[in-house]
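Q: Please design a sequence for this.
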């Protein structure tokens, strides 16, 4: 049962969970969310069909109906859930993980995420306790439906004029293949890995891993593209490469999006959500130039989507390439995010500004990127790093709601345990490379030297 995590159910299929778990999740879901109908979609992973079949059998054995949309991006399920008023939905996916993984992302009414603290924990408890699963006197029925045209129509409302752009896309053999060529039909676009293949033969569908972005960087350089766009496996995340074939820091895109929402749409004093690992440059740009009210919160959709709704924020984002929009039911969509960023890049180009110029302007600090340590005592290592730096220097700000973020004059760090992988994650930012290297070395000494962590 190691597949139940803070945000979703995910793990190596037939190791961390199996078809029986899928069946029981399906069986208990209607009772948990008090509904007699569940929307179900799935990505293209090879194990997806079996999970799909057993999940649906569980739902219908419990007496609830299923609306089955078949192959789906995760945002398509969010759209269907909120737009058509479902009280429960499941997307079968392992997002950006390797092909041997699979899982389930569960949503409730208004596409609000169901995490460990908001329902998945209850299902896990029922499974662990061996709660009975008697077949209902009247089993539910399955109906195959197609909501893709509705989602496509929604997306096209945001599409801009990209006629001045040369665009490179990497679809990662994932679920963006359902929509990208329709959304960007007629554009000067070149595609990599544009056939749906759940074995992910070209690279793992995780754009945060540098080697996975290398083919896109080469394509951008080769065709002299204005921008490169890469989606993850289930297309809820997107990342970008600039015209100099450099990876664009995903958190800085939160700041970049003000050019659409504020400069183009004319939104005033927006409320914007960032997460605890965000560069100081994000809030500085948004508050200084747009008088934005920037809120900082925990990593992950299970936390970000409800928080954006709570603050009535206009948009928000994460270092992992998730971008959330009030316009999209406070949910994340890689396709919608790319549509908006391409609008911005097109508008910049009309002003004679390249994406690389704009990113250079926004990049005000030296950043380590996330450093992952495999360490047994995550909590002990975290507390030790926090205690060391608090004693060595006086922090100007301390956040303790997702690991720790401590800010000091000229630098800051965040240290947090991964909710989905066996890592302790450390990220640091400073005004110079010298300070950055010094602080990383000090943290390394504690995590590796004292706690036996391995990078």
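A: Design:
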């Amino acid at each position: 049962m190691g597949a139940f995590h803070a945000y979703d159910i995910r793990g190596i299929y037939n190791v961390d969970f199996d078809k029986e778990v899928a069946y029981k999740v399906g069986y208990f879901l209607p009772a948990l969310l008090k509904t007699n109908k569940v929307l179900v979609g799935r990505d293209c992973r090879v194990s997806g069909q079996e999970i799909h079949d057993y999940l649906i059998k569980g739902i219908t054995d419990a007496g609830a109906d299923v609306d089955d949309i078949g192959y789906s991006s995760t945002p398509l399920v969010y759209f269907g859930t909120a737009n058509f008023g479902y009280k429960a939905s499941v997307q079968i996916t392992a997002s950006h993980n390797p092909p041997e993984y699979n899982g389930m992302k569960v949503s409730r009414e208004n596409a609000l995420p169901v995490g460990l603290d908001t329902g998945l924990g209850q299902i896990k408890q029922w499974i662990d306790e061996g709660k009975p699963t008697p077949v209902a006197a009247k089993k539910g029925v399955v109906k195959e439906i197609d909501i893709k045209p509705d989602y496509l129509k929604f997306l096209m409302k945001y599409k801009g004029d990209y006629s001045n752009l040369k665009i490179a896309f990497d679809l990662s053999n994932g679920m963006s293949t359902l929509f990208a060529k329709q959304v960007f039909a007629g554009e000067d676009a070149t595609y990599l890995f544009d056939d749906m293949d759940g074995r992910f033969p070209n690279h793992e569908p995780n754009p945060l891993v540098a080697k996975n972005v290398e083919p896109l960087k080469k394509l951008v350089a080769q065709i002299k593209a204005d921008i490169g766009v890469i989606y993850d496996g289930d297309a809820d995340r997107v990342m970008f490469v600039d015209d100099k074939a450099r990876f664009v820091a995903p958190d800085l895109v939160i700041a970049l999006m003000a050019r659409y929402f504020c400069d183009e749409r004319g939104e005033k004093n927006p409320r914007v959500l960032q997460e605890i690992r965000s560069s100081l440059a994000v809030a500085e740009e948004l508050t200084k130039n747009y008088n934005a009210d920037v809120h900082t919160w925990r990593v992950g959709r299970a936390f970000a989507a409800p928080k954006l709704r709570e603050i009535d924020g206009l948009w928000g984002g994460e270092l992992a390439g998730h971008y959330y929009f009030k316009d999209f039911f406070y949910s994340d969509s890689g396709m919608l995010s790319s549509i908006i960023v391409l609008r911005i890049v097109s508008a910049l180009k009309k002003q004679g500004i390249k994406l690389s110029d704009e990113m250079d302007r926004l990049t005000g600090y030296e950043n380590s990127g996330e450093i992952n340590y495999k360490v047994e005592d995550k909590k002990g290592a975290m507390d030790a790093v926090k205690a060391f730096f608090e004693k060595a220097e006086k922090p100007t700000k301390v956040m303790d709601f997702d690991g720790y973020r401590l800010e000091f004059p000229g630098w800051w760090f965040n240290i947090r345990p991964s909710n989905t992988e066996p890592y302790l994650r450390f990220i640091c930012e400073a005004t110079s490379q010298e300070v950055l290297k010094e602080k990383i070395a000090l943290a390394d000494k504690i995590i590796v030297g004292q706690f036996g962590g391995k990078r």
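Q: Thanks. Anything notable?
A: The chain has a mean pLDDT of 96. DSSP finds 15 helices and 21 strands in the chain.
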